[in-house]
Each structure stands twice: as structure tokens, then as C-alpha cells.
């Protein structure tokens, strides 16, 4: 499903995923990113070596994203 009438050009999205995630594969994450980009969203992509967890590095990246001048 790819809605054609949705414009996310105003949206800045932080998207992160674990390269060794056994619940959501890297391919599924890549597919989701592509769909968001096709809807014109600006996607700030981050991959991490872990699995389905949140690391300190990821938290630091989220904080930086949220503190950036565009947010």
C-alpha cells in the first residue's frame, strides 16, 4: 500500500534500526524508509550493530536530532 495523496515534505523523521534485529529485518526497515522518502519525508536514518533494543548511542542520536535547529 502506497498512498499517493499524502505529502510528508514537512516531516523530519528520526528512523533507527538494529542491524541484527530478529523482529524487524534490515530489509523491512529499508523498505519503510523508502516509503517515507517516496512520500517526500526527510528521513534521518541511523543503523546500529545491536538487535531489537535501544542503546546509549541511539539515545544520544535522538537527543541530538531533537535539539537540532529544525525541531
Question: Could you please describe the fold and organization of this structure?
Answer:
- There is one protein chain.
- With 71 residues, the chain is an alpha+beta fold.
- The protein has two helices and two strands; from the N terminus they run E-H-E-H.
- It has helices at residues 26-38, 56-67, and strands at 12-18, 42-48.
- It has a two-stranded parallel sheet.
- It is flat.
Q: For the largest beta sheet, what order do the strands appear in spatially?
A: 1-2
The succession of helices and strands, N to C, reads EHEH
Low-confidence stretches: none
- Percent range for helical residues? 25-40%
Strand count: 2
Set down the secondary structure blueprint.
Elements: E1 12-18, H1 26-38, E2 42-48, H2 56-67
Parallel strand pairs: 1-2
